[in-house]
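Notebook, p. 212. Picked up where the previous page left off. The plan for this session was modest: take the two constructs that came back from the sequencing core last week, fold each one, and keep the raw output in the notebook itself so nobody has to go hunting through shared drives later. Recording the first one now, exactly as returned: residue sequence, then the structure token string.
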Amino acid sequence: MTAPLTAVERGALVGIARAAIRARLGLGPSPSLPETGGLGERRGAFVTLHRGGELRGCIGRFEPEGSLARTVAAMAVAAAFEDPRFPPLRADEADDLDIHVSALGPRVPLLDPGLLRVGRHGLVVTQGWHRGVLLPVVAVERGWDAPTFLKHTCLKAGLPADAWRDPATTLETFEAEEFGDPAREET
């Protein structure tokens, strides 16, 4: 895992995500994308959007689109307008978004499922063209233990719940720094 992001860098990334969405809606300028410090690192990211406490979009990628700042901007726009589970975001929804960013560490093969640590690891399950990814925070929010986390990641991949036991299934973990807009989280 790379050095942790500072509070200022975290705030900047949430601001970049919000500005990128607003720019796409024609509600403001495109964000500047700093290439310094943690913002300039080549890291993957997920951006998760909630509105009224409900999921409104979540998209990410492990392979960065250049700097972390650039990747976050691209994933914010993708979460708002390209998540196939939801209609594209409307301008009247923009001010009500809670934005969470997950800055990703590298994927690491999980050879022993007993080493999966809920709260520390995110999980990738792959078998053939099926792939499911769940961020570390998902298992914590839902109160899952490791076997339940494995099961739900398999289901997300469109596989049987116990596909993680199949030798043809690849398991990988990753760590993520997960954070949102502190001003919105206090309310």
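Okay, moving on. Second construct, recorded in the same format:
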Amino acid sequence: MKKYKLAFDPWGLLVFLLVMLPNFFWFAVPAPDDVLRQESVIPRLDGIASVCQVLFAAALCGVVNRTREKLRLTPLLLASLCCGGLYAAGWISYYAGFVGPLVILLLTLPPCLCFFFFALDRKNYIAVIPLTGFTVCHLIYSIANFMI
């Protein structure tokens, strides 16, 4: 725990906001076949996911590993960028009217992996703990609500 300090990480905030940007757009502009607005069949799990999301976002933006290296393009950051691209492709497909299982998975796993690879690159293992919980809940939510 001595490796960590409470400090603002502007890169963590930027990654979080960039990944959340399509969600902000979705809140304002509904998609043509907007199945994501239906009520969840597992609201308790959604509550757990929300808590995990707040915790990982807070850790991503407010916890810094003192031993992390200067930010540069690494394989982990490249993987994070690729996941962000897949996530954007998922939203483009969703707004084009495709809502099949592949698109739902593109809206579920790549954003989580984007955060995961970024946190690993920044050696922010504290953020990885709630992020893992969020990822599991988010995947179960997607399967239960859209694939079963």
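Notes on construct two before I forget. The mean pLDDT is 97.
Flagging for discussion at group meeting.
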